[in-house]
Amino acid sequence: MLHAVGIESQLVSDGRYWMLLVQASDAQTAAAQLRRYDFENPPRRRPAEPDPPHRGAWLGSAGYAVVMLLVAYLAGIGAFNGNWLDAGALLSGAVRHGEFYRAVTALTLHLDVGHLLANLGFGTVFGLLAGQILGPGIAWASILAAAAAANLLNSFIQPEMHASVGASTAVFATLGMLAGFEWRQRSNAPERRAQRWAPLVAGVFLLAFTGTGGEHTDVLAHLTGFAMGIGAGVAHTTWRANRGTVAQLIAALASLLAIGAAWAMALGGS
Fold first, then answer.
1. DSSP secondary-structure letter at 19?
2. Which domains are delineated in the chain?
């Protein structure tokens, strides 16, 4: 750098230290140039080492699959003498009149086998990735909360006669959570702007590719799920809660109890 501005210099070592030598007449100018260089070229911060993937992340995806299949079976046989689809579907008018449990029960219902299998496939893969980052219990509790919040929001935006079912809102909440978490993590890293925004851009492309097609697709539910998921992902980067085994178990049990309680209210009122 000094050579570029016309100052002769030499780098020497005395065996312990390196020294930069310049002519005495150039000392002040050289010092000023070095300070200016340091100011214009601050040292890059090293990105924090990523946390190791949580063990047992697959347990969350396995639990998700079990819940989806169990509800499908019970709904198919009309267990407890109830019409599960009528009792648990997301009906905007019913939600507005206080049946908030439908925001949870609707996530576990599907119209046919193809609908169920598609959400099982995407949900288990995205959920596995989220579980590796946050742990299976906390990841799926966050997904459930984000998806239920998205369903509630959707109910108050859509017309009163609107009805929908399916775990796709949770699937896109998971995608949004992954994108939001990774974007926020990279926002403090020494990377180019394009690299920092890449996770969100990728998430939007996946949302557009998989979540906006089909005659009966509830696009708004996918959008609200994705948005709520981004919020959850960002929250997890700023609020680093305990993610140990006990916390994972508590979060998992709370999620199962929330689903069970929602269905108890749905079938009890049907």
1. E
2. 3-40 (no CATH), 57-268 (1.20.1540.10)
Task: Name the percent of the chain in helix, strand, coil, to the closest 5.
Answer: 70, 5, 25
Q: How far apart are CA 219 and CA 212, in angstroms?
A: 5
DSSP bridge pairs for 90: 164
Tell me the CA distances in angstroms from 59 to 1, 13, 131, 178, 245, one per residue in order: 56, 58, 9, 18, 12
- Tokens standing for 223? 């959008």
Residue type, 120: L
Residue 19's CB is within 10 A of a number of other CB atoms, namely 9
Measured distance CA(139)–CA(172) in Å, rounded: 14
Q: How many residues does the chain have?
A: 270
Amino acid code (one letter) for 52: P
pLDDT digits (tens), the chain, 270 positions: 677 777 888 888 877 788 888 888 888 888 888 888 887 776 665 555 667 888 899 999 999 999 999 999 999 999 999 999 999 999 999 999 999 999 999 999 999 999 999 999 999 999 999 999 999 999 999 999 999 999 999 999 999 999 999 999 999 999 999 999 988 887 765 555 555 566 666 666 666 656 555 556 678 889 999 999 999 999 998 876 667 899 999 999 999 999 999 999 999 976
Question: Residue 12: how many CB atoms within 10 A of its CB?
Answer: 9
Segment (H or E) for 11: strand 9-13
Pairwise CA distance, residues 116 & 176, whole Å:
20
In contact, 229 and 146? CB cutoff 8 Å? yes
Q: What is the CA radius of gyration of the chain?
A: 27
